[in-house]
Write a structure and sequence with these properties.
Two copies of one chain form a homodimer.
Chain A: H1 2-9, E1 15-26, E2 31-40, E3 43-48, E4 52-57, E5 62-65, E6 67-72, H2 81-88, E7 93-98, H3 101-107, H4 110-119, E8 125-130, H5 148-154, E9 162-166, H6 169-173, H7 177-188, E10 192-195, H8 202-209, E11 215-216, H9 222-230, E12 234-238, E13 260-263, H10 269-274, H11 278-287, H12 292-299, H13 301-306, E14 323-326, E15 334-339, E16 342-346, E17 349-350, E18 385-391, E19 398-404, E20 406-408, E21 411-413, E22 419-425, E23 434-440, E24 447-451, E25 460-464, H14 467-480, E26 483-488, E27 493-497, H15 509-525, E28 549-552, E29 555-558, E30 563-564
Parallel strand pairs in A: 1-4, 1-5, 6-7, 7-8, 8-9, 9-10, 11-12, 12-13, 18-23
Antiparallel strand pairs in A: 1-2, 2-3, 5-14, 14-15, 15-16, 16-17, 18-19, 20-21, 22-23, 22-25, 24-25, 24-26, 26-27, 28-29, 29-30
Chain lengths: ~575, ~575
């Protein structure tokens, strides 16, 4: 194994591939250097003057280590791991720390196992975190429950890299026994624990860190960044589609640089396709004034160090030949991407087979429902005042408004109101649970719409002004195995299939996006106000940790009181 | 386990120990900060305002993480691991990366096993590297041979941390199969490999690094330091007794700081006692102009990162409470030292039991010799010209001088010359091997002297002008199980026992040093010129990798020709 590297390093044999006359980022000294980068097999073997069986002229190009995304949920792209890779690898990302939190809430350990196996089809290293909070809250029915014992058993799996973002920070701080058991299991297996502790400071932060938690991607203020770094955390600079904190880069200094890493967390397929991935974060950071070599260091060596990824994240002998050949450190346009020494993308296009899909049965057909009927959606109120959920466009925080309502035949009347029925239909265990709410101001009229993405347990969120249409929508979602649906009252049904756990599609990104756009346009045509993301704005309406009023399959939930609440006002 | 940390962190219970009003080094942000440092069990649980069952007022003191020595041979102190700890722990060192190269050359795997077990008696974490080069050269008989297969088998041991300094860099560069096997075994076990590559540059360095080697402690020039860091190595700043490169600190920049670590490599008991250990390196570095916070960072966080020691090397929640409470960052005088949360030293004195010794039989009585007789030391020469070794005072490089000799009864005549017989007597396997040389200019007269420390195979080095005395010296060394000896012709024998492998003493440092000084004085009294280190200057005369003329048990060796040579000129 070593001999072929050594022989090539000392030029006793040609290297397999040489990047000639490269300017490259030396992350160890934060400088740009020049030389031929020689590669044998999956390794860089030397920098100097080299000849290769294949050579790429890099005279006017800049080479960096492959980018590492320190924290990402693949599911947010609605793409399979293979298709996800086909979008991000050509952008220069060669390693991701992935937390399959969503699919695990639906499928249990079949989720991470699927992601692990599917990822083997593509030239992207997926370090898989075991989701730590399944379910995310006890206020809803999820497809799986992973308690301390389950974590203890499963975290030892070879394909599990660490324990995913520990969102249940109150559970840590309050020493909930099963929560501590999860943390202790991770430590016993010697695996890293990712954090998630928005606005946790001072003694509470000390307490949270005593769980042995290494990272945070939720920082937004200078004080928070500085305190968390000072207390030993690595801080992610996040470039998600909905959540960003690129501004954290302003707090980088000579001394604390090594503790900053990059991530995307949640990134939609459209953004991946049109704007990019870590490359886009780098572009933005440099545009905002961060030194490009520092930016690259955060996206490579720092992240490798944080996650203990040896021989990765730098351009030096024996390091993994994960390399990005860029037009420069301003545009960060990748002309070539090398994964483990192989050219796997060129000019933004993958050179690997993007059509392969690993699709095990246990992540398909995950919508488990009895046949639904119009009567299931009758909403009987006690009086003529009720609580209605509202949501601002572009946000995930909801409001609660007391509205006047009329009823007829024991069902609320929606005609001539700005109200809709908002139901969460349990879809994992056939409990028959339906959570009921009123939703004000969304604008939709004349039928129903629904989606099987509903953070974090991913039951069905159904919206409508017609019981029959709502039943048809639910039944169609069952039929297609999950996805998005629109039903015209007494008319057509339009749907988009997300066959993998009801969260992701096994199709290619392009056709998926085309169909997705068309369905979204139809929702707007039926009244959903511009400004809302038609379907994705619904996906957070059951997330019972974000204020103010939410609805899960178990009922209406007042997040501020942290308790279920009556719809009757 | 975690609960007690968390409860104390959020002040729901008192901490076990609180360092009140401490100024402390925050290595993550390279700043001095203030606060109470709260400790529970072996961990730091928080920084803020805390109350403890015990409190230490640190108002006028500075707290740093415990120091880490990145590379040290305990044997160089001639002390047991327990006694070694009793000297360095009170100086603030709480973790060492130890390479038991010397004892392993004598005892094989019994050596590291002994060091591992003995270290458990003391509050010092000893990360044990498996010696990679046993024997160091094929030109002598060592007590043990560890080939690729042996390394493969033993490196998996739980008590082995990594593979020790890979001195055989020509073997790596030349792809010697058994050498590569050793490296591959280390990689297969996922363990780190320390380097040793003095003046190796360019393509040869690339080749060496393709062995997957992580560190170097032999750098001395700016170019060498910068090239090695740029190629991914961590560079040690070394503060040994005989080898130093503190000057490397001059090459620290904002950007490469993280790649510098501290070590001592070889440090004699007298230096440890009188000057110190890593604390002395820090004192010197700061005196020479290095920013003290940077110096501390090299000795703590950087070293922990290099060796993958998680939760160590910083003052933050969940980090190991290995702490040094200093009078300041100028003198670096440790008032208290904490190991894993316990106060283990105060005002330079250990607070732990320093008298315990683990002494297994297989590291004792390691001098295996047949009874020696005067005749064994007859040196028959062919003519009246012979090669004689010379050595400059204070050095380890030897010279070769052609001298006129007379013989009588088939033995060389030494009277009225400046010559001595220099014999290396094999002491491991009873081969009966005696290497024979002449030694010029040392000054000793009237008997014999000998030592069982002889790098790196540690046979017996015997010097004398009287065959009978030389035999008596050898026999005495056998009798005492190794050490140092002086024989007066026809008179007394004086000796110092190094009972552990003939290299280290199980006694306390103080009495050992007193007796050692007395024996050294006797050697000088018998003529050894001042300037030589009496015994220790002899210890390198068989090291067949340092020019020019050396002698091993297998004969006289010309290092420049890299071959054995005839004593007859």
């Amino acid at each position: 194994m070593l001999e072929k590297y050594i022989l090539a390093a000392k030029r006793d044999r040609k290297s397999d591939l040489v990047l000639k006359n490269a300017t490259y980022v030396d992350v160890f000294t934060a400088t740009l250097k020049k030389g031929d980068i020689a590669i044998v097999g999956e390794k860089i073997v030397g920098i100097g003057e080299y000849e290769g069986e294949r050579e790429i002229d890099c005279s006017n190009l800049v080479v960096t280590p492959g980018f590492i995304d320190g924290h990402v949920h693949i599911e947010s792209s609605q793409l399979s791991p293979e298709e996800f890779a086909s979008l991000i690898v050509p952008r220069g990302t060669t390693t991701i720390i992935a937390d399959p939190h969503e699919i695990t809430n639906v499928c249990g350990m079949a989720g991470p196992e699927y992601i692990a196996k599917a990822s083997r089809n593509v030239p992207l290293d997926v370090m898989l975190q075991m989701p730590s909070c399944v379910p995310a809250t006890p206020f809803e029915t999820s497809g799986a429950v992973l308690d301390g014992k389950d974590i203890e058993k499963n975290i030892k799996n070879e394909y599990i890299f660490g324990l995913g973002e520990f969102m249940n920070y109150p559970g840590v701080i309050n020493c909930v026994p099963d929560v501590l058991k999860k943390l202790e299991a991770a430590h016993a297996s010697g695996k890293i624990i990712d954090g998630h502790a928005p606005s946790v400071y001072g003694y509470e932060l000390n307490a949270y860190l005593c769980g042995g938690i290494s990272t945070d991607h939720e920082c937004v203020t200078k004080d928070e960044v500085e305190e968390k770094i000072s207390k030993g955390m690595y801080v992610h600079i996040r470039h998600g589609s909905s959540t960003q904190n690129l501004g954290n880069a302003k707090y980088i200094t000579d001394s604390n640089l090594r503790r900053f890493i990059l991530c995307t967390d949640d990134r939609h397929a459209a953004d991946l396709k049109e704007k990019g991935h870590i490359d886009d974060a780098l572009r933005r950071l440099v545009k905002d004034g961060l030194d490009p070599v520092r930016a690259v260091t955060c996206a490579t060596l720092n992240c490798a160090e944080c996650y203990g990824l040896k021989w990765r994240g730098a351009i030096a002998p024996f390091y993994l030949a994960d390399l990005v050949i860029l037009d420069g450190l301003k545009n960060f346009d990748a002309e070539y991407v090398l994964k483990s020494g192989k050219v796997v993308a060129q000019n933004g296009k993958p050179l690997f087979d993007t059509s392969r899909r690993y699709l095990p049965k246990n992540v398909l057909n995950t919508v488990h429902l009895k046949e639904m009927h119009a009567d299931d959606f009758i909403l009987t109120l006690k009086g003529n005042k009720a609580k209605a959920m509202t949501i601002e466009s572009g946000g995930v925080v909801t409001g609660c408004e007391i509205v006047d309502v009329e009823s007829k035949n024991g069902d609320v009347v929606l005609e001539r109101t700005d109200l809709l029925k908002l139901n969460v239909v349990e879809r994992h265990k056939m409990t028959g649970n339906i959570g009921r709410a009123l939703f004000k101001g969304y604008g939709f009229k004349g039928g129903a719409m629904g989606i099987t993405i509903a953070h974090d347990s991913h039951n069905i969120i159904l919206l409508g002004d017609d019981n029959e249409s709502m039943a048809r929508a639910a039944n169609r979602l069952k039929e297609i195995g999950g996805g998005m649906v629109i039903v015209e009252k007494g008319g057509e049904i339009y749907s988009l299939t997300l066959d993998i756990a009801g969260l992701m599609s096994s199709r290619d990104a392009e056709s998926l996006q085309r169909d997705s756009r068309s369905l979204i346009e139809r929702a707007h045509a039926m009244g959903v106000k511009r400004g809302y993301e038609a379907f994705m704005s619904l996906a957070f309406l059951s997330l019972a940790v974000i204020p103010k009023l939410k609805v899960t399959d178990a009922g209406l939930f007042d997040v501020e009181k942290f308790a279920f609440t009556d719809i009757n006002a």
